[in-house]
Amino acid sequence: MIEHRVQARQEPYTRCKPSSGARQVATAYGTQLLEVPEMKQFFIIETGGAHSFRTVYMDGRPHPAKLAPSSRGHSVGHWEGDTLIVDTIGFNEKAWIDNLGMPTTDRLHTIEKFTRTNYSTLKYEITIEDPGAYTAPWTSGFYFRWTPGESFEFVCQENNLAPELIMGEDKIAVKPPSFVP
């Protein structure tokens, strides 16, 4: 599976499909974070790519016992001081957590942490647990710039030419990266 993902580079983002985890947050055109306390929900909205959103339930509910697997999974969250903790399960095997095609299975479980470290910086951490793909949980993350204000309109069309432009019509030889969990 990983070899095909890396060689074909048909990642969901370039085809206007939903991405998960770090790939959703690290979209090229920015990510919007919106908390609606009255609804007890938090929304993670990608400006680019599929221009869709993930709902994080903040009302203390557990994950449902029976989930229909999806590319985004089912997310519940809570605040620990200034850090938003998002726990997500219920992924299908189409879920991409990065742009390289790191392997995932339907047993993927992510814990994401969003911390605003100062006025203009957001720290993002993600812990990946997927016993179907890795021998142990592992953590990664990055910092990105926080910019207040409104987003711009971005239209992603499924029939765009980005995959051919990005991938050279599958004629580029890509060496699979080494993955160390």
Q: Largest sheet, order of strands side by side?
A: 1-2-3-4-5-6-7-8
- Integer-rounded radius of gyration: 16 Å
Main sheet record:
8 strands, mixed
Which structural class fits the helix and strand makeup? Answer: mainly beta
Q: Count up the helices.
A: 3
Intertermini distance:
17 Å
Low-confidence stretches: none
Describe what you observe in this structure.
By secondary structure, the chain is mostly beta strands. It has one domain (2-167). The protein has helices at residues 2-8, 21-25, 162-167; strands at residues 31-36, 41-46, 53-57, 74-80, 83-89, 109-118, 121-129, 138-145. An eight-stranded mixed β-sheet has the order 1-2-3-4-5-6-7-8. A hairpin with a 2-residue loop joins strand 6 (109-118) and strand 7. The longest helix has 7 residues, at 2-8. The radius of gyration is 16 Å and the shape is globular. The chain starts with a helix and ends in a 14-residue tail after the last helix.
